[in-house]
What does this fold into?
Amino acid sequence: MSEEKSKVSKNVTTESYKGVRDFYPEEQAIQNYIFDIMRSTVTLFGYKEYNASPLEYSELYTDKTSEEIVSEQTYTFMDRGGRNVTLRPEMTPTVARMIASRRKAMAFPQRLFSIPNVFRYERPQRGRLREHYQLNADLFGIDGIDAEIEIIDLANELLKRFGLKEDQYEIYINDRSILEDKFEELELDPKKKQAVYRLLDKKDKIDDFDEKLNELIGGDLLVGLEANERIDQLIEELSARGINNVKFKPYLVRGFDYYTGVIFEIFDTNPDNSRSLFGGGRYDDLLEVFGEEPVSAVGFGMGDVTIRDVLETYDLLPKEISFTDIYVCVSDRQYKVYADNVATRLRKNGIRTVVDMRYDTIDSQLKRSKKYGSKFALVVDEEAFNSDKLILKDEYGKTLGQKSLEEVVAIYKREV
It folds into this structure.
């Protein structure tokens, strides 16, 4: 290696890019737990998984995604072919593009989900990074309120399966048509209407909200805003399903321009984490961007960073992580082939098995076994090799006796 290349190598940092994460095995295990809950819950409701590249043409976002996200928060660049490309900041435009691409061949309703990596250039803070993974669940092809009911029911079920109780979160709902009617009454032009939406979206984050609202419209926009029939019916029918923490919030708008009807956000009630956990809503017109006939759609996105924060707040993340089921300790290199054969037979029974390769003291190997979170350990030594009886130990190192491999498998399966 040249001196110049050597100098460059020494200057490369070991730190990850600001606002993104490395997932070492322990962190990845927690991430997998979160993904497993997400995936197992949405599939119970019949949602089918899809995926797509994180690279999209930039114009996909310029029409229907909010101006702030497009102009300030996207990772956008020109590729070597002169095309403007963006790392997706969200998944909804992508799934709409995919639906539009096969619109005529698809049977509706379509229930779809994905857990993609998404990217936004913003200031990293608690619950908000420059990249995160996000569960997206979308129901296409249902015009009536049954779609909103199913989507909110699904969102509620996710939180329950993560271990949250009903009094630990609230579901706020609104209907954009209520605000649109108010805008029409006030005769707001499109530009001013857009400015009011932007301001409403920041209502809980700024101190001079009332002052800025008065500057825009000369009065209190929220006066006289009441739930419409659709909102009342939604609250009533969700309550009939046992979901009783739903509340009308007249100034809820969500940050995206493509919402057309009912929208919702779920908030943690803990004052230490009093922020939106996730949300969604109805977006019936997004396919028009592609010149296709509209398809009614309702969906939501749940980010992994925010949900992990709330699970930590309520001590709901797994405390013990297991990377293997049985750890095989080997007293001497001469018994390695035998130990490998034992491991192969255990793996054929669906038992995750690791064989130690250090050949130091059994006590040292048992300590390493604990780092793997093993439920059992097997000791392969001269006696085990000659008798074909393995010394079985539990996760605390207590000897459970000498067992044949068949007995080990039976004991393991009985325990799990």
The longest strand covers residues 131-140.
